[in-house]
Amino acid sequence: MVPAGFRALFEKNKVSVLIPTYNNAQTLSNVVSTVLEYTDQVIVVNDGSTDSTLQLLSHFHMRCVKVFNVHARQGTITSLVLIRMDNIMPGTCLCF
Prior knowledge:
Blueprint: H1 6-12, E1 15-21, H2 25-36, E2 42-47, H3 53-58, E3 65-70, H4 76-82, E4 93-95
Parallel strand pairs: 1-2, 1-4, 2-3
């Protein structure tokens, strides 16, 4: 359960949470669900996962979760450059 006021604070400050992932299908659902308790602005960068991560993310795609897929493993920083960080959610505070 989210402590009182945190969700309002995230919304007021336009906080987006970035979740880089690579083959984390076993834990990713819990991570995304928990982050959604704090903010509706969630960005997941799938860095070429070869497990069921992509299928799992399809369940969240309709719930304010932006999913970016990098088809070949690049590493988190390179993946962020490839998806052009400046076009994700302009004017927001980004948390990793």
